[in-house]
Amino acid sequence: MKFLPTLYKKLTFSLTLFALTFSAISCSEDEDAPAGASTVTLEFQNQFEGQTLTLGQEYTNAHGHRVKFNSFRYYISNVKLSRPDGTQYVQPDSYRLIERTDERIRESFDLLEVPAGAYTSLTFSIGVDPTRNHSTDQVGDLDPNHFMAWNWDTGYKFLVAEGQYFNTAEATFRNFIYHVGHDANYRTVTLNLPSGWKLNGQDKTLALTVNAKTLFGGPNVIDLSATGFSTIHGGANAALVADNFQQMFQVKQGQ
């Protein structure tokens, strides 16, 4: 019967076509399916107007003063990544100290087990929220041995910046000391992520530039030689510095 070989060939061709089609669909679904969790490294690139912040090096601030830093430290807390639908990944107990001092440079930390998917923005705060600021539950980097807790008041220093500025009236360098804390000076930042930023199970680094020049001119241009502005330990002028340091951060493009 001649029609049997022909029928066999047709059945073989149909089954092959079906297998190829199913394989293509399966591959497509695999490519679109969410992969495992990722580790995201947040990297804080401390700079002064585009230059890497180098201790002891002279820079010119927004008021025109020559300034140089001995130390630059701040807390990053309550880190969140937002998805297009408004839901969020919240990093638990994310209280991390970023610092550049003679003793240590620590400018990154990891977000662990971040679920796969697309993300549109990064939110974090500078400082320690009121609940933890007055708590003995020292999670993350809240150990007082980091010397970021007040020794005369309750709570933490949110930002420490110390160095010298050139006082033109006296023709000499004078110290500036910024120790900013207290609940009223806790600030939150939300930054848009690059378009199409997503995780598919691979580890990734998200770099932020941090412009220390903004401390002296964010929205508030600060004259270090004016009374009360070269030494700040909380107080009314600390709010002006807090408004400035809220503007220090930008997501580095091209990642």
TrEMBL record:
Question: Which InterPro entries does this one have?
Answer: MbnP-like_dom
Name recorded for this polypeptide: MbnP family protein
Q: Which ranges of the sequence are coiled-coil?
A: none
List, alphabetically, the Pfam families matched.
MbnP
Q: Which organism is it from?
A: Rufibacter roseus
Keywords from the UniProt entry: Signal
- Taxonomically, the superkingdom here is Bacteria
In the UniProt record, the signal sequence range is 1-28
Q: Where is the Copper-binding protein MbnP-like domain?
A: 38-226
